[in-house]
Specification:
about 190 residues; 7 strands; disordered N terminus; Nitrate ABC transporter substrate-binding protein; signal
Length: about 190
């Protein structure tokens, strides 16, 4: 697994503990505001080209540039922000990449979206894929590249096709999302 995943598990555990403690210590308050909006990004077909933030040639990927500016605007309209970490996959740290988690960090919630992108060599890709497969992740080859997704036995939030955390290895790059369907939202590198 990646070094990033334990951070998200810790955030979710802290949030759940805080919610449980507050639920046990006081009566439920009367609702005074509308429910919090959450983003559910489940594209059923390949998206049309959307305007993206302009990136300088050779610029490093960021949480705001690896996905479209429209998606970033949608997240921000919900009050979401992003946390970023260096990209690591299967014990391989990849320079020049970024892993991001988008969510509303002002409140305890498990409603988040995860995206990542990094350049990768063939040797690094093989090492990462072998490590993930050794941990029980499934490997599927396709015309898009090699998908490596968490085991169906451990997936907690699957997409419509049953996929959870997923990497897509292409020629010289790797993408990462919390679902296989989420991979199509990653639009880096931008032209």
């Amino acid at each position: 697994m990646t070094r990033l995943l334990p951070r998200y598990v810790a955030i979710a555990t802290i949030a759940a503990t805080a919610l449980l403690a507050s639920a046990c210590s006081s009566p439920a308050p009367e609702p005074t505001t509308a429910p919090t909006k959450t983003a559910e990004v489940k594209p059923s077909v390949a998206p049309e080209a959307t305007p993206t933030a302009t990136a300088d040639a050779g610029a490093d990927p960021t949480c705001e540039t690896i996905i479209s500016s429209t998606t970033v605007a949608d997240f921000e309209s919900l009050g979401w922000t992003s946390l970023s970490d260096p990209f690591s996959v299967g014990g391989v740290d990849l320079d020049g990449g970024v892993q991001c988690i988008w969510g509303d960090f002002s409140t305890a919630s498990d409603h988040v979206q995860i995206f990542g992108w990094a350049p990768i060599t063939d040797a690094e890709a093989k090492k990462a894929q072998d490590a993930l497969e050794g941990e029980g992740w499934r490997v599927e080859e396709s015309a898009d590249g090699v998908y490596v997704t968490e085991s169906a036995d451990t997936v907690q939030t699957p997409d419509d096709q049953g996929y959870g955390l997923t990497y897509l290895f292409g020629e010289g790059w790797v993408k990462y999302a919390d679902t296989k369907q989420g991979i199509i939202l990653i639009e880096w590198p931008q032209s």
